[in-house]
Specification:
The structure is a homodimer.
Chain A: H1 2-7, H2 15-21, H3 27-32, H4 38-41, H5 47-54, H6 58-85, H7 88-95, H8 99-103, H9 109-129, H10 138-151, H11 161-169, H12 174-200, H13 210-231, H14 235-252
Helix pairs in contact in A: 6-7, 6-9, 6-11, 9-12, 10-14, 11-12, 12-13, 13-14
């Protein structure tokens, strides 16, 4: 669903797609405001398609390619070192560019960090959700989502961008903090939509509180990531997974008749 | 128990105390090695007692007092801004000292940050566990520990020092990272001891895996702290608390005969 979604223009989006848009920083608000910037939708389109779309405007294309390349290479630096810890020298080394070459494309370190976060979060989510639509039962889908979270950790080196950026900015940088808040809201909205759809389909017990369940899943997995990152051992994450699996089976899945 | 423990010399410590020592960074290893540095034990002793102990050595006492004061004032800075984000100017402003006045007492920023972390973690733990020994049943004690975690968050401004330092250093600073690892190990060892004592006393079901339960409690609470810090809303933490309370009642507490 994710890939298909990212290739669509706003006119093609149905309700399910709008719910999924909650996942991509910036998209949800843009949709709600009925003012979707087309560049958001095309970020992940293949190079070939970009070439077709922009036609002969080779110079602009190259500038945008460089910009995306800087974002892609800066993302692991910010994710590993944090905002304050990411030195210009680190960014220059990673991108192979001089200071001027980087800041021609971004107004500030903060602007680059914000784009790098959005990129890192998009890639992380993609790894966590991209194959869920092949699973029909909602509880099974939630379990696969938990498994994806545990097993597909290495998308962007440095751990979960949401956890890192939340902790890095909770007392400071308001631009980055707002990006992290949006990411969390989107991630939770996606889970809530899925859980509510499961209740409607009678796959999930009617008394399950979708927001509470979504928050529990997010909190325990993110806390498990902290322990995993510190100890470099999967044990905590696997423990959280086993606990959530058991909880989903015994307290969330609707009993079959 | 905590206060009593901190006032004791190593000779007075029983087995329970040794288990509790796991909580204080540095103490556990020191005990194991039978080489307890007395200054570790007396850190929290009242000023009056310090005065009695060191007698007329006023100059040394003053130097140590200044050192402790720097640690106490630097702790919130490191906890809020992270290691890289804590600038010398921040530390100077917080302590009211010049650069030379700070670094006369610490060999490096890293050395100060490590002491500041140990202090912040000790204070945080004290808030989380200091009244638990008034509760006799182990499951009730675990529930109170969870409640303390949720309700006593503001000990050191900036959120949980363990979570912050773990995320801040998981890709970098090995000295600080090791302090955070020790803090996590100690925190978990304390919980494991408590849970195993509960199994022995038949208050906790015999099949409960103490390490898994301890890790689950830590992971979900720390993840809840992340959401709380980002959203400035207690909702996630209260949700985690309700979930853990219910789990402790239904799956952990031994059924009464």
């Amino acid at each position: 669903m994710f890939d298909a979604f990212m290739r669509m223009g706003p006119d093609e989006l149905g309700e399910e797609m709008v719910a999924a848009a909650a996942l991509i920083p910036g998209c949800f608000d843009a949709l709600r405001d009925r003012a979707v910037a087309s560049n958001v939708w095309y970020t992940r389109i293949s190079d070939q398609l970009v070439a077709e779309l922009v036609g002969g405007r080779a110079e602009m294309r190259k500038g945008e390619q460089t910009r995306q390349e800087i974002i892609r290479k800066a993302a692991p630096i910010f994710n590993q070192k944090g905002y304050a810890g990411a030195a210009l020298s680190d960014l220059m080394r990673a991108t192979g560019l001089e200071k001027g070459g980087i800041y021609r494309h971004f107004s500030s370190k903060e602007a680059l960090a914000a784009e790098a976060f959005d990129y890192a979060w998009r890639e992380t989510l993609h790894a966590r959700i991209h194959d869920l639509d092949t699973i029909s039962n909602t509880v099974d889908r939630l379990k696969q989502l938990v498994a994806n979270f545990v097993e597909r950790r290495g998308t962007i080196p440095g751990g979960c961008p949401l956890l890192n950026t939340a902790i890095d900015t909770d007392d400071g940088n308001s631009v980055l903090r707002e990006r992290a808040r949006k990411a969390l809201r989107g991630w939770r909205s996606y889970l809530i939509s899925m859980i509510n759809a499961g209740i409607k389909a009678r796959e999930i017990r009617p008394r399950v509180d979708a927001k509470k369940l979504a928050t529990l899943i997010i909190s325990s997995l993110e806390g498990g990531i902290m322990v995993y990152r510190l100890e470099r051992s999967e044990e905590a994450l696997r423990g959280v997974q086993a606990h959530l699996d058991s909880y989903l089976e015994t307290e969330v899945r609707a009993p079959s008749n």
